[in-house]
Design a protein that fits this description.
By secondary structure, the chain is an all-alpha fold. The chain is built from four helices and no strands. The chain has a domain of 60 residues.
Length: 102
């Protein structure tokens, strides 16, 4: 991808970029689904990627309510997808570590 075709809203850090890319991929499917179906699919996809990021970092997975809160905070922004990714990243960062019994 050349710089003139680069997405100006795509985050440069991780896990924001990974989360953003997953959302953009889900959004590309919107035309193939009914409105409530694509919204649920996007929420589920964001929960899944956030869960994976949490577990890879040894943290407790986010609750769906946290994913919905990040989405609501992103609403109305011209960089909606990026804002959702940043919100999830912040929630992941704040998650407590998993307690592993030894």
């Amino acid at each position: 991808m050349t710089s003139e075709h680069a997405d100006p809203f795509r985050p440069i850090g991780q896990p924001e970029q990974r989360i953003y890319d997953r959302l953009i991929a889900e959004q590309a499917l919107r035309g193939k689904r009914e409105a409530d179906a694509w919204l649920e699919a996007e929420l589920r996809a964001m929960w899944e990627v956030a869960r994976d990021c949490c577990l890879e970092s040894g943290k407790k997975p986010l609750e769906m309510a946290q994913v919905r809160k990040a989405e609501m905070s992103a609403c109305g922004h011209s960089d909606y997808a990026a804002q959702w990714a940043y919100g999830l990243s912040e929630a992941i960062y704040k998650q407590p570590r998993l307690m592993i019994a030894t």
